[in-house]
Design goal:
Elements lengths: L12 E3 L12 H9 L2 E5 L7 E4 L2 H9 L3 E2 L29 H7 L2 H4 L1 H5 L2 H18 L3 E2 H18 L6 H12 L5 H21 L8 H10 L5 H14 L3 H14 L1 H9 L4 H11 L10 E3 L3 E3 L2 E3 L4 E4 L1 H4 L34 H18 L4 E2 L21 E3 L4
Parallel strand pairs: 1-2, 3-9
Antiparallel strand pairs: 2-3, 4-6, 5-11, 6-9, 7-8, 10-11
């Protein structure tokens, strides 16, 4: 796009509160922003000033892949944001730009490949079977979140990380304290430091390891001098915490399947479509509130005729990109035959979540175990009575009360 065609007219700033939305409802303000234009301006509840918002699929992909938009530059800025507190540590993977970010990601890449994830499939399946057996023995009704979804996601991420089973409960407790705003900043920071000290010890013990779990890979990378211990610990904490939202994602997935029985019936009848159906559910599920981390423009950049100036903050909305009608016809419809489905539920570009293959594995195992293994699985309360998390950046049911045919 030539310089002359870039507009200097700024769109109005829209205040975007963090709404506690019911069920899997899509954010009505985000719908308005998508209609208003491909590039709009927003102000979030915390931080300072305003930021650009990009919502089209093509533009989201472009921004996240473009080195002119920096995560690292956010460190020195008070950008408008959703979270009440913002204390990134310098050198954290989420706030690094290539080549440092690439070097750090490379150290653990093997654990997140299809082969790396496949390594834990059978053990994950066995752990899930045990949880489902316990659920069936206790009888209905039950909270699917507490009895299956939460313990399963903790077990799987700990298994991939290489955390000994005896420490899984402690890891879960730390994660809850770090992610919950209700305990206060000091409690969260203390838990993060304790988790970091735990990982520092574990990584140190595995410096010569040839195992393929995350901690062993980090230990080997530290031993070879490719990453520092501090960098390895920061990445381990980030990845461990990142496994927790899977509980909420799978909660939303089963909320959809149990409130739209036709979808669940089709998955029971046609098991071969499950991988494609999981991708469609991943596209559709509104997994978070508002937006995640911002970027800073390092130079003037034109997007859809709008000039983004050097120093401006910018957000992308993966939720909006997943509902772009130019890429996903009838985006409000859950269509298990949608093909291809280039959704960006795991982000895109260098900072894309490495756990996509892992989440698909967990979703696949859960659908197999719960739809095939529990006859007549359904909600134990009306859909509107399922309590969803409030005041949280990651959306999902607090509890998922279910019942089934008790024999």
């Amino acid at each position: 796009m030539s310089e002359e065609t870039l507009t200097e007219i700024l769109p109005p700033i829209r205040h975007w509160p963090s709404l506690d939305l019911p069920g899997v409802d899509f954010d009505p303000l985000l719908t308005e922003l998508m209609r208003e234009g491909p590039v709009t301006r927003i102000q979030l509840p915390n931080g300072e000033g305003w930021a650009w918002l990009v919502t089209r699929h093509e533009d989201v992909r472009m921004v996240t892949d473009d080195p002119r938009f920096s995560r690292e530059a956010v460190m020195d800025r008070e950008v408008t944001r959703l979270a009440p507190r913002f204390v990134p540590a310098r050198g954290e993977a989420g706030f690094l730009d290539p080549p440092d970010h690439t070097r750090l990601r490379r150290s653990v890449a093997a654990a997140f490949t299809a082969t790396g994830v496949e390594r834990i499939r059978e053990k994950s399946r066995r752990m899930l079977d045990e949880l489902v057996d316990e659920l069936l023995q206790d009888g209905p009704p039950a909270d699917l979140t507490a009895s299956v979804l939460s313990p399963f996601s903790i077990a799987v991420i700990c298994e991939l990380m290489g955390v000994p089973a005896a420490d899984w409960h402690g890891m879960h407790t730390w994660t809850q304290l770090i992610l919950s705003a209700s305990h206060g900043a000091q409690v969260g920071e203390k838990a993060k430091n304790e988790m970091g000290a735990y990982f520092a010890r574990l990584i140190g013990e595995r410096e010569g390891s040839t195992d393929q779990d995350v901690i062993s890979l980090l230990g080997a990378a530290v031993g070879r001098g490719e990453v520092t211990l501090e960098e390895a610990v920061g990445l381990a904490v980030l990845l461990q915490i990142g496994g927790q939202p899977v509980t909420h994602h799978s909660g939303q997935m089963f909320y959809i399947l149990l409130t739209r029985p036709g979808l669940a019936e089709r998955l029971r009848a046609e098991p071969e479509i499950r991988p494609k159906a999981i991708d469609e559910l991943l596209r559709y599920i509104p997994h978070r509130n508002a937006v995640g981390l911002s970027r800073i423009a390092l130079e003037d950049v034109g997007i859809r005729g709008v000039r983004i100036r050097a120093g401006d903050a910018l957000y992308v909305s993966y939720l909006a990109a997943n509902r772009d009608p130019d890429v996903f016809p009838f985006p409000e419809t859950i269509d298990f035959d949608r093909d291809p489905s280039p959704h960006v539920s795991f982000g895109s570009g260098p900072h894309a979540c490495p756990g996509g293959t892992l989440v698909r594995l967990e979703s696949e195992l859960l659908i197999d175990a719960l739809l095939d293994g529990i006859p007549g699985l359904g909600l134990a309360v009306p859909p509107e009575e399922v309590p969803f998390r409030r005041g949280a950046s990651i959306r999902g049911p607090e509890t998922l009360p279910v019942t089934w045919s008790h024999q």
